[in-house]
Amino acid sequence: MTKVSELAYNKCFAATPEDLGEVAVLYGGVSAERAISLISGQAVAHALKELGVNVNAIDVGENVIEQLSDASFDTAFIALHGVGGEDGKIQALLEYLGKPYTGSGLAASALAMDKLKSKQVWQAEGFSTPPYLCVNADSDWQAVMNTLGAEVFVKPIHEGSSLGMSCVDNAVDLKNAYQLAATFDPKVLVEQRIVGAEYSVALLNGQALPPISMLTSNSFYDYQAKYESNETRYQCPCDLSAEKGDEIQAIAVKAFNALGCSGWGRIDFMQNKDGDFFLLEANTVPGMTEHSLVPMAAKVVGLDFKALLLEILVDV
């Protein structure tokens, strides 16, 4: 058994439902990622109830201030994805109410949600991340392509789950991709495509779980590949050598810490053909669906879904 699973199981055997008190599972929300958050939250609430935990499942709406002010709970398990859940807003409200919660604090959540700011912090810390430009409606699309190369990704700066994201190889498609991304976020990033393998590393209370590789027949690991396809292949343990596995885990921990993140989360990477790793983005409230990566990695080190939830909660 690894250090991670020994730590978790020791805590799990010591923890009781009474120790956790009443847990509010915050899910749903009003972001573009609501559908995934509903699935995540329902899975978390169901598993905690099976453990005997007193659960108050709250589908967060526009009236979230009233909802949480009136609700009875001791701790919040945040299962809200996207704007309003991962960007520091719900964290700020919970801190105002004096309620402890899972995952990163408000400042780290806001920073990690911003793809541009995250890249800037990582660059300042000496990490590799794909070259990029910020664009607007008046950008010279051909000049952007000339600067960044043959293929680029277009991303809304404050969205997750690959929503509004496109991969293009010409200026005409780049303009169209910008217009799509701008429907999700007025701030749009264009990033050079790194050709190679894609990996993700989950973080759990200061430690990196085994890296996962994602293989899809789609043009990239998009929303459909992440949540809808049964053909996307995941490998954990993956094909990295022991040396490269240690390297990507070490980078993940340092990159997570550089943003001030804590508790649990995930860092996504690309590896080029020379074997170099490039940081893509941080996720402070990863999915908890049947396709989700954190539960997959936790299982490899001996943590089933319920034990993973306890490990997240007992360190709040």
What does this structure look like?
- 40% of the residues lie in helices and 22% in strands.
- By secondary structure, the chain is of the alpha+beta class.
- Strands 8, 9, 10, 11, 12 and 13 form a 6-stranded antiparallel beta sheet that branches. Strands 4-7-5-6 form a 4-stranded antiparallel beta sheet, covered by helices on one side. A 3-stranded parallel beta sheet has the order 2-1-3.
- Strand 1, helix 3 and strand 2 (54-60) form a beta-alpha-beta unit.
- Helix 1 crosses helix 13.
- 47% of the residues are buried.
Oligomer: single chain
Largest sheet: 6 strands, antiparallel
What is the succession of H and E elements?
HHEHEHEHHHEHEEHEEEEHEHEEHH
Strand content: 15-25%
Q: Which segments are poorly predicted (pLDDT under 50) over 5 or more consecutive residues?
A: 1-14
Bulk shape:
globular
**Number of spatially distinct domains:** 3
Proportion of residues in helical segments: 40-55%
Count the strands? 13
The whole-angstrom Rg is 19 Å
CATH architecture field of the largest domain: 2-Layer Sandwich
The CATH superfamily of the largest domain turns out to be ATP-grasp fold, B domain
CATH topology of the largest domain: D-amino Acid Aminotransferase, Chain A, domain 1
Question: What are the SSEs and their pairings?
Answer:
Blueprint: H1 3-14, H2 17-20, E1 22-28, H3 34-50, E2 54-60, H4 64-70, E3 75-78, H5 89-97, H6 106-113, H7 115-124, E4 132-135, H8 141-148, E5 152-156, E6 166-168, H9 171-182, E7 188-192, E8 196-204, E9 207-208, E10 212-215, H10 223-227, E11 233-235, H11 242-258, E12 264-272, E13 277-283, H12 293-300, H13 305-314
Parallel strand pairs: 1-2, 1-3
Antiparallel strand pairs: 4-7, 5-6, 5-7, 8-9, 8-10, 8-12, 10-11, 12-13
Helix pairs in contact: 1-13, 8-9
